[in-house]
Predict the 3D structure of the following.
Amino acid sequence: MSRKSPADIAAGCIRCGFCLDACPTFKLTANEAESPRGRIYLMRHVLDAGRPMDAAALTHLDNCLGCRACEAVCPSGVQYGLLIEGFRARIEEEGLRPSAEAGARGMLLDTLTDRGRLGASLAGLSMVAGILRKAPAMPGLFARLLTGGQSHEAAVPLSGTGRSGGHLPAFTAAVGRARCTVCLLDGCVMSVLFANVNRATAELLSHCGCNVVCPHSAGCCGALDAHAGRRERARQRARALVDALECADYDVLVTNSAGCGSTLREYGELLADDDRYAARAAALGARTRDISEFLVELGVEPPTGRLDVTVAYHDACHLAHAQRITSPPRALLRSIAGLALVPLAESDLCCGSAGTYNVTHPETAAALLERKVANIIASGASVVAAGNPGCIAWMREGLARAGSTIRVTHTVELLAEAYRRGASQAEA
Ligand code: SF4
Ligand code: SF4
């Protein structure tokens, strides 16, 4: 099947407006230009009429969170994610941003996607964390990550592990007879800021009968770059990861980060015009599974340990909309004895984190976060579970700001804790 051109994809929009109610920026503004249909109309002006992208169009396209909620509800199957990422790449490649802004965005992405640089930046900047805490209005991801100590105190994961970084072991053996071998990506942001989630994921997989390999030569998958329009950088990273993972022997590639999973699954598209890599990238994408989806497909025994908690589940955009995974995490949570899964209103509405959006668009991101926090508090849950690091950090931030003690954790941490408790009860 031949690939559709951006103009063909955009032409698929029948202007029905079904997507409007799903769109966070349209919900906030009721402005057609801030809706998927309006943005596709703006893109068609450039694609069909060959008009240059003016400042107003650039602003409306930039305001898009890239959450893909519109794509999930579109009856015409418009691949909005491909369109917006293509336009973002065009904005970067044609240098349409003021140079200072382009430089700052580049620096932020370079830091977030490099383990060493991110770790060093956090360590260095932690010295000024006290000062930053006295300036809560100061924008920027670092300020939030560093002052996030308060949020983390309110949000200690049930597994009780910390935020310290580090690689996973290169090999973790299955408990009992091995059913398969899983390659687990420990990622860039995940390995530095959510190493506890990585450890819980490896432990969970091992407990469920999987050998776990974690090739240390595997770097960032390029998701943040792809979502931000740095297409060439994302392609370089994708090629490097394809090369690194071809050296490993495994059955399935598993991720615990929704943003990474969605990009990995679309590697075939990202490298479609690269003769050397297209087929290998598509094959890697086809072997990729989100951890929740993988465990349900594998068919795991429910944990025997109890967790008496009330949990609300937040659908990360790149899990629910880009990968259409909504039932597996809920099924796994429901399998935990004692855990009450309560409904969360607008569970699939973006929380505002959206990669680096919370830094580049702090006001819209804060408005969406406030809405998410209000829904979480109204749910009556004491814990929120989600499958994406950006959402977890951002919701922790919002709940801490609201003075709430509701904890936010990754779904795998709850599962790992339930299996861990079951194993200790069996030993006792
Ligand atoms: S739902 Fe799809 S076809 Fe309808 S307006 Fe939105 S993008 Fe266009
Ligand atoms: S990706 Fe999200 S923010 Fe952007 S147009 Fe679609 S629904 Fe709206």
In short: The domain at 6-93 is CATH 1.10.1060.10 (Fumarate Reductase Iron-sulfur Protein; Chain B, domain 2).
